[in-house]
Design a protein that fits this description.
heterotrimer, A alpha/beta, B mainly alpha, C mainly alpha, A: alpha/beta, D-Maltodextrin-Binding Protein, domain 2, three-stranded antiparallel beta sheet, 10 strands, B: mainly alpha, 12 helices, about 70% helix, membrane (chain B), Sugar ABC transporter permease (chain B), transmembrane helix (chain B)
Chain lengths: ~425, ~300, ~280
C-alpha cells in the first residue's frame, strides 16, 4: 500500500512537470475556436516554423487569458478578441500598436469595411487589432413557407415586409394563422432594439442611455410571446437547432396563456435572426435537410453580431513572425481568397477580396441567392461609434429583465427598475436615469 | 515530551512556509484589495485606495443581503429535508426490534450521489430540468402526473427548491451514515432501563437518543452550515451564471465571483469574501453556543 | 409478530423507492447518452438508443473528457499524498517536541479552520500570477501541504495512540528522528490517514472554483472545469453528447466507489466520531 501511494505520488509529480515543459514553438496563437488551425497549417508550411494554437473555450476565455496578459507570464504572441470584450481589452495595453512603425496599418484603412476597422482602435485612435471578417446580420427564412404564407420568397419583397417592427408583427400573425411561428424565441428581435437612431448604452458622460426604441423592446417581446408568434425555443438550445430542420414540439402550458388557442403539439419555425457566420457554422452544419430552402434578408434595422479581432501581444518576443502571420490572415489576397472560398465562407472585411468574390456569386444553400452582396450592403450601414465596452454585460442584464417581463413574473416598471439597479450594482460608476 | 529540538523547526517548516505563503498571505492580500477599487486589470499599483468605502457599500448592498437570504433559504430547506430522511433512516436501521438487513448495501447506495463531481451533477440537472425538452418533464407528462410542463428553473420558488433538493439528494446519505454511527454508539443500557421504566418509543427518542446524539448533530450541523454558506457550483452551472430566475439563485459566493471576475470589481469582490467570512464565523459561533447552552439547562 | 413482518415489508418497499429516486437521474443520464439529439427532444423512454458512438465522436472532437479525468486524478492524488505526509510530519513535531511559538501555531490552526476557502481565492490568484504559477497545477497542489484541519485531526490521534516510549527505544537503537517518523509514526497513523485521505480526495476531486480561476489551457482542465466549459460549447447543441460527457465523468467514479464503499464508509464514520 505504502509503495503504491509513493509510486502514484512520483508519477503524478512527473506528469505535472512534463505538462509544463513541452517543446517550445516559434509562435503561440491563442483563440477561442479552432478556425485558425487551417491558416496556421498553411503558415507553418510557408515559413517552415512551428506554431502552437491554444484554444480556450469561450466560457473561460477572458478569465483565463487576462491574467497572462496582465503579468506577461505565459502570454501568447498573437491572440484574438471577440467583440464582447474587445473594447475592454483595447483600453488596456495588451495589443501592440499597429498604427506605429514598422507596421503603419493606417494606410490600409480604405481597403477595409469601415465599422470593422474603427472597432479595432484604442481610445487614442491607434489600431491595435484587426479583423478579417465582417459580421452583419439579417433574417434567414424558409423559402417554402414564405411562398405558402406570404405568396413570395423573393428576399427583396420579404425584406420590405420585415422593414419595420409592425411589419414583423403582421408577418407573425399571418404565420400563426397557418400554424407556423415567426421566430424560435423573442431574442430574435433583440438586434433591432436600438431602433433607427442608435444610441450607445453608456454615453461619454458615463450615463446609462434608455431610449424609446429600447423601451419598446419590452412591448414587442411581450407581443411576440402573448400572440404566440414564437416557438419557445431559446437561442442555442437543442430545440432551437431542431427548429431549423422541421416541426418541433411546442408544449407550452396553455392554460397560462390563452384558453381559446388550439393546442397543437408541433409547429414549424419560419425565420431566425442570425449574422453572416451562422450560415456556415450553424445552418449548413445543423440544417442540411433544409438546404436550398433558405434565403436571407434585412430586418427593421441593420446590425452585426460577433466578430473576431486579432493582434499581437505588446511584449511578444516574436513580433516579426507574429506580424507576418497577422498580415497573411487579414491582408494576403491569394491566401484569403482560397481560405474563404474553400473553407469558412466568411464575409471578409478586406474589400479587394470580398468584392471580387461577391461578383456573380450564387449560394446554393440559399437557393442561389448572392448573400455576399446583401451582407456587404448591410455592413456599410453599420456605425461603430455606438459600441461601448459595457454592451455585452448591460445587454445581458437588459435581456434577462425583458425575459422576466415576458414571462409575466414582473411588471414592465419593476423590470426596468431592477435593470437599473443591476447596472448600478455591476458598474457603480455609471449614472442611471431618473 | 522532548525538550526544544531543532529538528522540530525543520519538520514544521514546510507546513509553516506554505501556510504563510498560500494561506495567510492571500488572505491579507485579499484584505488589502478590499480597501481599494482595483478592477482586476491594469495592476494593483494603479488602483485607488478607498479605505472602508467597500465595506460601507457592503452593509448597504441589497444584492448582498438578497444573496445571503437566498443562500440561507436554500441551505435551510436542504438541511431540513436531508436531516429528516437521514434521521428517519438512522432510527430505522438502528432499531433492535426491526433488525433490518442490508445496512451495508443501503449505506453505499444512499451515499453514492455524494461522490459525484458537483459540476457534473449541476450540468446533469440543468438538462434534466429543461422546461420544453428536459427528461423530467417528459417523464412526468407521459406518466400523467402533470398536464403541462413545469418551468422548473424559471420560477424562484421552484428553482430554489430544486437546488435545495439536489443538495439534500447529494448529502442525506452522508448524514445518514454519520447519524447511524452515532446512534449505534449509544449504550443499550439506557434503552433497557427506559424500557423497564415503561417509557414509550417517543420518550426514549427525546430523552435518550437526541441528547446522546448532540455532539454528532453539532458536527453535522456545523459542517453543513459552512458548506452551505459557500454554495456556488450548483447555482453557477444550473442557470445563466448570474443567479436567474430573478436573482433567486444568486448565492453569496456566486455574487462574489460575478463582481470580481465578470463586472471587474475585484476590490469589492474581496470585500464580499470578508463579508462571507464574518457571517460564517457568526453562524458557527451561534450554533455552538445554542447547542451547548441547552445542555447547561 | 405478524405486525412487525408487515411493517418490515412496508419499510423495505419504502427503502427501495428511495433507492430508485436516488438512481433515476443517473439512469436518465445513461439512457440519454445513447440516444441522438432529435430522439431526446421527442420524448423520454427507458430503452437505450443506438447513437452512443456518434455522441462519442461529437464529444471527443471538442473535448477530451478522459484527459480531464486523468488531470483530476493527478491533482487529487498529489493533493491527498502531500496533505497526508506533511500533516503527519507537522502533527508529529507538535506532539513530540517542545519549541517556541508552538502554542501560537496551534491556536492559529484553530482560527484558520473557520476561514472559508473563498477568502483567500482572490489573493491566491494574484499570488499565483506573481509567482508565474497561473495555468499550472502548483497553486492547486502546494497549499495541500498546509492543511490545519488534517494536522489537528492527526495530532488528536497521535496523542491517544502513540507512546513516547517507542520513540525512546528507537533513539537508543540509534534511529534518526525522520527515520522513526517514517518507520513508526506513519504506520501508526495509517487509519487516520485513510480517513482524512478520503475527505481530501473527494474535496479536491470536486473543487471547481479554484481550478476555474487558475487554469487556462484546456489540456490542463480538471473534470469539473471541463464540465463547466462543456455547457457553453458546441457540444451543448447535441444533448446526447452532453449526457455522454457527464456520464463519462460520473460512471467510473461510481464503479470505483462500489468496490471501495465498505472502506470509505467506515472512514466517514470514524472521521465524524473522532473529529
Amino acid at each position: 500500500m505504502k509503495k503504491l501511494v509513493f509510486l502514484l505520488a512520483i508519477t503524478s509529480v512527473f506528469l505535472v512537470l512534463t505538462a509544463c515543459s513541452e517543446e517550445k514553438a516559434d509562435l503561440v496563437v491563442t483563440s477561442f475556436t479552432d478556425e485558425l488551425q487551417g491558416p496556421i497549417d498553411k503558415f507553418e508550411e510557408l515559413h517552415d516554423v512551428k506554431v502552437d494554437l491554444q484554444i480556450i473555450p469561450t466560457e473561460n476565455y477572458t478569465t483565463t487569458l487576462r491574467p497572462a496578459l496582465e503579468s506577461g507570464k505565459g502570454a501568447p504572441d498573437v491572440f484574438t478578441g471577440e467583440i464582447v470584450y474587445l473594447k475592454d481589452w483595447l483600453e488596456q495595453d495588451y495589443w501592440e500598436n499597429l498604427s506605429a512603425d514598422p507596421y503603419n496599418v493606417d494606410s490600409w484603412e480604405d481597403d477595409y469595411m469601415e465599422y470593422v476597422w474603427d472597432l479595432g482602435k484604442d481610445p487614442e485612435d491607434n489600431v491595435r487589432a484587426v479583423s478579417w471578417q465582417t459580421t452583419p446580420g439579417g433574417i434567414y427564412y424558409r423559402r417554402s413557407i414564405a411562398k405558402e404564407v406570404l405568396g413570395t420568397d423573393d428576399p427583396a419583397e420579404v425584406g420590405e415586409m420585415f422593414s419595420t417592427m409592425e411589419g414583423l408583427m403582421e408577418v407573425g400573425e399571418k404565420m400563426k394563422e397557418k400554424n407556423y411561428r415567426l421566430f424560435p424565441d423573442e431574442g430574435s428581435i433583440q438586434p433591432y432594439t436600438n431602433g433607427q437612431d442608435p444610441q450607445p448604452w453608456v454615453n461619454e458622460a458615463n450615463e446609462l442611455v434608455m431610449t424609446e426604441a429600447r423601451l419598446s423592446y419590452f412591448d414587442y417581446a411581450k407581443e411576440l410571446r402573448d400572440k404566440q408568434y414564437t416557438a419557445l425555443a431559446p437561442a442555442w438550445s437543442p430545440a432551437w437547432y431542431e427548429s431549423f430542420v422541421g416541426p418541433i414540439s411546442y408544449n407550452v402550458g396553455w392554460d397560462e396563456l390563452d384558453d381559446s388557442a388550439e393546442a397543437e403539439d408541433k409547429t414549424e419555425v419560419f425565420a431566425v435572426s442570425l449574422p453572416t457566420w451562422a450560415l456556415n457554422s450553424v445552418l449548413k452544419v445543423e440544417a442540411q435537410e433544409t438546404a436550398g430552402d433558405w434565403a436571407v434578408t434585412n430586418g427593421p434595422t441593420p446590425y452585426f453580431q460577433g466578430g473576431t479581432w486579432i493582434g499581437m501581444y505588446k511584449d511578444s518576443e516574436n513580433k516579426d513572425l507574429a506580424w507576418e502571420f497577422i498580415q497573411m490572415l487579414v491582408h494576403d489576397e491569394e491566401f484569403l481568397t482560397e481560405w474563404v472560398t474553400e473553407t469558412t465562407g466568411d464575409v471578409l472585411s478586406y474589400i479587394p477580396v470580398t468584392s471580387k468574390i461577391s461578383e456573380g456569386y450564387e449560394e446554393e444553400y440559399l437557393g442561389g441567392q448572392n448573400h455576399y452582396e446583401f451582407f456587404l450592403e448591410e455592413a456599410n450601414k453599420i456605425d461603430a461609434s455606438t459600441i461601448t465596452k459595457y454592451d455585452q454585460q448591460i445587454g445581458d442584464l437588459f435581456g434577462t429583465e425583458v425575459g422576466n417581463y415576458v414571462e409575466g413574473t414582473v411588471t414592465k416598471e419593476e423590470a426596468l427598475e431592477e435593470f437599473y439597479n443591476q447596472v448600478k450594482n455591476a458598474f457603480p460608476d455609471i449614472t442611471i436615469p431618473e | 515530551m522532548e525538550k526544544t529540538n531543532r529538528r522540530a523547526y525543520l519538520f514544521i517548516a514546510p507546513f509553516v512556509i506554505v501556510f504563510l505563503v498560500f494561506n495567510i498571505y492571500p488572505i491579507l492580500l485579499t484584505f488589502y484589495y478590499s480597501l481599494t477599487n482595483y478592477s482586476g486589470m491594469g495592476g494593483i499599483a494603479n488602483a485607488e485606495f478607498v479605505g472602508f468605502g467597500n465595506y460601507i457599500r457592503l452593509v448597504t448592498d441589497s444584492y448582498f443581503f438578497e444573496a445571503f437570504g437566498n443562500t440561507l433559504k436554500i441551505w435551510g430547506f436542504n438541511f431540513v429535508v436531508q436531516m429528516m430522511i437521514a434521521l428517519g433512516l438512522a432510527l430505522l436501521f438502528s432499531d433492535i426490534r426491526l433488525k433490518l438487513k442490508g445496512v451495508g448495501l443501503f449505506r453505499a447506495l444512499f451515499y453514492l450521489p455524494n461522490i459525484i463531481t458537483i459540476a457534473s451533477v449541476a450540468l446533469l440537472f440543468n438538462i434534466l430540468l429543461d422546461w420544453n425538452h428536459g427528461a423530467l418533464n417528459q417523464m412526468l407528462l407521459s406518466l400523467g402526473i402533470i398536464d403541462s410542463p413545469i418551468n422548473w428553473l424559471n420560477s424562484p420558488v421552484y428553482a430554489q427548491s430544486a437546488v435545495a433538493l439536489i443538495g439534500a439528494w447529494m448529502w442525506f446519505g452522508n448524514s445518514f451514515i454519520i447519524l447511524l454511527a452515532g446512534i449505534s454508539g449509544i449504550s443499550r443500557d439506557y434503552y433497557e432501563a427506559a424500557y423497564i421504566d415503561g417509557a414509550s418509543w417517543w420518550q426514549s427518542f427525546t430523552n435518550i437518543t437526541l441528547p446522546q446524539l448532540k455532539p454528532i448533530l453539532l458536527y453535522v450541523l456545523i459542517t453543513s452550515i459552512i458548506g452551505g454558506l459557500q454554495l456556488f457550483d450548483l447555482p453557477m452551472l444550473l442557470t445563466d451564471t448570474r443567479g436567474a430566475p430573478q436573482g433567486s439563485l444568486n448565492t453569496m459566493v456566486l455574487y462574489l465571483y460575478n463582481q470580481a471576475f465578470k463586472y471587474n470589481n475585484f476590490g469589492y469582490g474581496a470585500t464580499l469574501a470578508y463579508g462571507l467570512f464574518i457571517i460564517t464565523v457568526i453562524f458557527s459561533a451561534v450554533t455552538f453556543r445554542t447547542m451547548y447552552r441547552k445542555e447547561v439547562k | 409478530m405478524k405486525k412487525i413482518t408487515l411493517l418490515k415489508a412496508f419499510i423495505y418497499i419504502a427503502l427501495t423507492v428511495l433507492v430508485i429516486i436516488c438512481f433515476v437521474p443517473f439512469y436518465m443520464m445513461i439512457v440519454n447518452a445513447t440516444r441522438s439529439n432529435s430522439e431526446i427532444l421527442q420524448g423520454f423512454t427507458l430503452i437505450p438508443g443506438s447513437a452512443i458512438l456518434d455522441n462519442y465522436q461529437t464529444l471527443i472532437s471538442y473535448m477530451d473528457v478522459w484527459r480531464g479525468f486523468t488531470n483530476s486524478l493527478i491533482v487529487a492524488v498529489s493533493v491527498t499524498v502531500l496533505n497526508a505526509y506533511f500533516s503527519a510530519l507537522t502533527a508529529f513535531a507538535l506532539v513530540v517536541y517542545e519549541f517556541k511559538w508552538k502554542n501560537i501555531i496551534f491556536v492559529s490552526f484553530l482560527v484558520m479552520m473557520m476561514v472559508p476557502g473563498q477568502l483567500g481565492l482572490l489573493g491566491l490568484y494574484d499570488l499565483s500570477e506573481a509567482l508565474g504559477m497561473l495555468d499550472s497545477y502548483w497553486p492547486l497542489i502546494i497549499p495541500a501541504i498546509a492543511a490545519p484541519f488534517t494536522v489537528f485531526f492527526f495530532r488528536q490521534y497521535l496523542i491517544t495512540t502513540m507512546h513516547t516510549s517507542i520513540l525512546e527505544a528507537g533513539r537508543i537503537d540509534g534511529a534518526t528522528e525522520l527515520h522513526m517518523f517514517h518507520r513508526i509514526v506513519l504506520p501508526l497513523l495509517m487509519p487516520a490517514i485513510a480517513t482524512m485521505g478520503i475527505f481530501t480526495f473527494i474535496g479536491s476531486w470536486n473543487n471547481y472554483i479554484t481550478p476555474l480561476v487558475i487554469l487556462r489551457s484546456p489540456e490542463l482542465f480538471t473534470l469539473p472545469v471541463m464540465m463547466g466549459a462543456l455547457r457553453g460549447s458546441p457540444v451543448a447543441m447535441n444533448l446526447g453528447a452532453m449526457y455522454l460527457g457527464i456520464a463519462i465523468s460520473v460512471v467510473p467514479i461510481m464503479i470505483a466507489f462500489l468496490f471501495l464503499s465498505r472502506y470509505i464508509i467506515s472512514s466517514i464514520t470514524a472521521g465524524a466520531i473522532k473529529g
